[in-house]
Design goal:
The protein has 584 residues and is an alpha+beta fold. It folds into 3 domains: 206 residues, 4-Layer Sandwich (Aldehyde Ferredoxin Oxidoreductase,  A, domain 1), CATH 3.60.9; 162 residues, Orthogonal Bundle (Aldehyde Ferredoxin Oxidoreductase Protein, subunit A, domain 2), CATH 1.10.569.10; 152 residues, Aldehyde Ferredoxin Oxidoreductase Protein, subunit A, domain 3, CATH 1.10.599. 42% of the residues lie in helices and 16% in strands. The chain is built from 24 helices and 17 strands. The strands form 4 sheets. Strands 2-1-6-3-4-5 form a 6-stranded mixed sheet. A hairpin with a 2-residue loop joins strand 7 and strand 8. The two termini are 32 Å apart.
């Protein structure tokens, strides 16, 4: 079937020559299925060993999976590249319309090679590719404005997505994001900087193909079953009602909410920045990704007065989730909601990954308190917990980079701490800044061992929480086994590509049925084998590019601040890392 399915087509774009070609690769998709499985295989083909990730030669691969556009919550696109932030595997996932637009345009993957000599944005309309001059867009103060101009310039048809970078990507900030639509991102690990190194301001993709179904009656029945589960079960209702911001109060209650650069595990102002408080006082709208009935994207409506006119306001719609609330809320010790959202909005305008920005600012705040840096380094800014006016200015300077300090901050917390001191409290894992969970050793080990150094790799925080609930002691062998099993299965889901919020719906049995409905004959055993192989390929790429699990820096702060799962030490962490990597 794949020979007739647009999923098997790969679009290759050469920015230096302003040329493109389309290849049918059924072999690639039979082996890699889609998404992460296909993207890592293409990265192996396209990325030479030892390549400088800031070079225009760094390839960008977008890939979608066989369930995209076919089943509910099949809504994610995978981007893979060599990360300028960590120096090895870069993998970022985004919702919105990107995945469905790529599929409707007639592709399972897009490979972007080399770089443009001048600023450009690329337009993909089905089988046609156009290269537009982006000189007038380069250097704009707002990524929003660039997106608006691209939207107005391109008529398009069918399902359309607009990806673009802000000035952070243009300036090579190693954790610059790519904004897709308005409220979704390829956020982590610096895809925006790779766009910038290629002089590619944006990517517009549209298409209106139909997708083949093997057995229409069986497909309809299965679709309805999944749709009903997604819309009627308690499993997904929480995401619709409060979104992931629901995590703030429960994590705070058990002492797992990182506060003031993880000097504490609970925040006295948690009520003021909780999902409940934000929904009650600020929620303006809920938005869903394409082909998703859940609508977990929550937007706050914030009114800001214009200068010198007390009766004239600008209303901004600003997206929020648990990770942004943690990163610029509790971690920075702030409860000023307007200031918090102004900092989030500035990160959007500039095109910065909010988690990396927040963790880096938290390190800088503590470093200033300890006397490791002064107003000389910060260019006159006094960084205090909750001082959002200073944080907004610091975010701008991370992008503008007026001195050596901000050039280091533009590389992240680990780089800055390696120069100015404070590595013990620089909250990075494999050079990637931490997410918002301090549940115990398994949570942090998930960040250490995950291929993306992300909480979404293996959900280590859940391992901690289950052990806490059962009153069980965690062992090195148990943690390593749980993390490895979970991450292997998630490779299957991110190859389909299914939103990981729906992992409880897409059990192995359901996945097998959905794949059969779209022409993939896979046993459950085959799926588990595929997941293990995909993870192994990712790790092989990381190690090829210089990643060494045994020498990863472990920040002392994570062991100093009490966690709900109890105390742990570096010996336990090193043992789990060794066990995990011996089997991966």
């Amino acid at each position: 079937m794949l020979n007739n399915d647009p999923l098997s087509r790969v679009l290759y774009i050469d920015l230096s020559r302003r040329s493109y070609s389309i290849q049918n690769r059924p072999d690639l998709f039979e082996a890699g299925v889609g998404g992460s499985g296909v993207a890592i295989r293409l990265l192996e083909e396209e990325c030479p060993a030892g390549l400088d990730p800031t070079s225009p030669e760094n390839p960008i691969i977008f890939a979608v999976g066989p369930l995209v556009g076919m089943f509910p919550l099949g809504s994610k696109a995978i981007a893979m590249f060599k990360s300028p932030h960590t120096g090895n595997l870069g993998e970022s996932h985004a919702g919105g319309r990107s995945a469905v637009a790529i599929r409707m345009a007639g592709y399972g993957a897009i490979v972007i090679r080399k770089g443009s000599p001048t600023p450009v944005y690329v337009v993909i309309e089905g089988d046609k590719v156009y290269f537009r001059d982006a000189s007038a867009l380069w250097g704009l103060n707002s990524a929003y404005t660039a997106g608006t101009i691209m939207r107005q310039n391109e008529e398009g048809s069918g399902m359309r997505t607009i990806m673009r970078i802000g000035r952070a990507g243009e300036q090579g900030v190693s954790y610059a994001s790519v904004i897709t639509e308005t409220y979704r991102h390829f956020g982590r690990l610096g895809l925006g900087a790779v766009f910038g190194s290629k002089k590619m301001k944006g990517l517009v993709i549209s298409g209106q193909r139909s997708l083949p179904v093997v057995d229409k009656r069986a497909y309809r029945t299965l679709y309805d079953e999944i749709y009903k589960t997604a819309t009627e079960s308690e499993l997904m209702k929480k995401y619709h009602q409060l979104g992931t911001a629901m995590n703030v109060l429960p994590l705070n209650a058990i002492g797992a909410l990182p506060t003031r650069n993880l000097q504490q595990g609970s925040f006295e102002g948690a009520d003021q920045i909780s999902g409940e408080r934000l929904a009650q006082d600020y929620l303006g709208r809920r938005v869903a990704c394409a082909h998703c009935p859940v609508a977990c994207i929550h937007l706050a409506a914030i009114r800001y007065p214009y200068p010198n006119d007390p009766y004239f306001y600008k209303t901004s719609m600003i997206g929020y989730d648990h990770e942004p609330i943690f990163a610029v809320g509790s971690l920075l010790g702030g409860t000023d909601i307007r200031g918090l959202f102004q900092l989030l909005d500035e990160a959007e305008v500039l095109g910065l990954d909010v988690m990396s920005m927040g963790v880096t600012l938290a390190w800088a705040t503590e470093a200033m308190q300890r006397g490791l840096i002064s107003v000389k380094e910060t260019d006159g800014l006094t960084l205090d917990w909750g001082n959002y006016a200073a944080y907004v200015e610091a975010a701008k300077r991370i992008v503008n980079q007026p001195n050596d300090f901000y050039r280091a901050m533009a590389r992240g917390a680990e780089k800055a701490a390696s120069i100015y001191g404070g590595l013990d409290f620089a909250l990075t894992f494999g050079s990637n800044e931490m997410p918002g969970y301090h549940t115990g050793p398994a949570g942090h080990l998930g960040y250490f061992t995950g291929a993306r150094h992300s909480h979404l790799d293996s959900a280590g925080y859940s391992v901690d929480q289950k052990a806490i609930a059962k009153g069980e002691a965690l062992t090195a062998e148990g943690i390593a086994s749980s993390l490895l099993e979970e991450e292997r299965w998630r490779q299957v889901l991110t190859s389909l590509v299914i939103c990981l919020f729906a992992r409880g719906i897409y059990t192995p049995e359901v996945v097998q049925k959905t794949l059969a409905a779209v022409g993939f004959d896979r046993s459950i055993e085959d799926l588990h084998t595929f997941g293990a192989d995909t993870l192994h390929r990712k790790y092989a790429f990381k190690i090829r590019e210089g990643f060494d699990p045994a020498t990863m820096r472990i920040p002392k702060r994570i062991m100093e601040t009490p966690s709900p799962a109890g105390p742990f030490d570096e010996e336990l962490l090193r043992k789990v890392i060794a066990l995990y990597n011996a089997k991966v």
